[in-house]
UniProtKB/TrEMBL annotation:
It comes from the Bacteria. InterPro entries: PdxA_fam. It comes from Halosaccharopolyspora lacisalsi. Belongs to the PdxA family. PdxA2 subfamily. Its EC number is 1.1.1.262. Signal peptide: none annotated. One of its GO terms (molecular function) is NAD binding. Keywords: Metal-binding, NAD, Oxidoreductase. SUPFAM superfamilies: Isocitrate/Isopropylmalate dehydrogenase-like (SSF53659). This is 4-hydroxythreonine-4-phosphate dehydrogenase.
């Protein structure tokens, strides 16, 4: 099988994106046996990132098209977007850098539309910088969805062989409760089922966390688990998806961390993000399900406080590349199922 070509957007050049990109591509040659990584972004910033990482900036090579990539170890091949930004100071909020970070994402989407790449991997952008530049997206996800013209998508956190799907993300807890609907739950279970098939594990159990304490305990602590989640799980089972629950979140999530579940559906942001980040830190990634190509992101921010100091860790970016390379060959099935599911979009799923 041909190795998938991945467009790696360099993120906000005032942050750690260029540095961790350099460390990823110069310190992990084994990645090249899994994928063909091509950076999309600022050549000058990437050369500076190589220098910060202790490398020779001359290893950066410009390409006009990702299909020209040689994938040679010890080199970084880049499709440049716009002019270089030498005057952007590291560690400072910059509308210029925020604008550029958005343009890198748009360029990566254009490459995917032209089938010049098979997936997208994103280094972090800064939402405040992006907004200062006039791009009023809550985050990467909405920008990507806009560029691909999709309305329905879901956020999935992943580390090792564990995947957390989210019914809702960046909304208030009050609004999240109302957004856990039968329609949304049906759709996300369909997406989770398609995802397991893309991994070659169609019979994989999918544990669904209850919304309320003890999954409602027979409506003693809320009706949503019995009236919304349970019927959706039954319907998914009827359709051949091995969904289980709703299960008390305080039992399901620790069991998942211990390896007893690989697929979990959580109801709201902190139900998934808080335990996930407490356990995995920066060793997780964010996958967007619902786009026509696989997109995987680091699960951390621009880290302005350490930008330029040479101490930023590339672990999450390396994992993002591996996840994208793993998922790209079977992604068309996930995409087709996502279209069929007609899932209502999470009001503000970001990162």
């Amino acid at each position: 099988m041909n190795k998938p070509t991945l467009a790696m957007t360099v993120g906000d050049v005032a942050g750690i994106g260029p540095e961790i990109t350099a460390k990823c591509l110069l310190g992990h040659d084994d990645l090249r046996s899994e994928c063909v990584p091509v950076v999309v972004g600022d050549v000058g910033a990437l050369r500076a990132g190589v220098t910060i990482a202790g490398g020779d900036p001359d290893v950066v090579r410009e390409l006009e098209d990702p299909r020209q990539a040689t994938n040679q170890p010890g080199t970084i091949e880049v499709v440049p977007v716009g002019d270089s930004l030498p005057d952007v100071p590291l560690g400072s909020l910059s509308d210029v850098a925020g604008d550029a970070a958005c343009r890198y994402v748009v360029a990566a989407c254009d490459l995917a539309k032209r089938e010049a790449v098979d997936g997208i991997v994103t280094a972090p952008l800064n939402k405040a910088a992006m907004h200062a530049a006039g791009h009023q997206w809550p985050g990467h996800t909405e920008l990507l969805a806009h560029e691909f013209g999709v309305q329905d998508y879901s956020l999935v956190l992943s580390a090792a062989d564990l995947y957390f799907f989210h019914l809702t993300t960046h909304v208030s807890l009050h609004d999240a409760i109302g957004a856990v609907t039968r329609e949304r739950t049906d759709a996300v279970l369909q997406l989770a089922g398609a995802f397991t098939k893309a991994l070659g594990r169609p019979a994989e159990r999918i544990g669904v966390a209850g919304l309320n304490p003890h999954a409602g305990e027979g409506r003693l602590f809320g009706h949503e688990d019995a009236d919304v989640l349970a019927p959706a799980i039954t319907a998914a089972q009827t359709g051949g998806i091995n969904a289980v629950g709703p299960l008390p979140a305080d039992a399901l999530i620790p069991a998942a961390v211990r390896g007893q579940w690989q697929m979990v559906v959580v109801c709201y942001h902190d139900q998934g993000h808080a335990p996930f980040k407490a356990v995995y830190g920066d060793n997780g990634v964010n996958i967007t399900v619902g786009l026509p190509v696989v997109r995987v992101s680091v699960d951390h921010g621009t880290a302005f406080d350490i930008a330029g100091r040479g101490i930023a860790r590339e672990d999450s970016l390396v994992l993002a590349c591996r996840r994208a390379a793993q998922l790209a060959p079977g992604w068309d099935h996930v995409w087709q199922t996502a279209q069929q599911a007609d899932a209502p979009a999470d009001p503000r799923p970001t990162l």
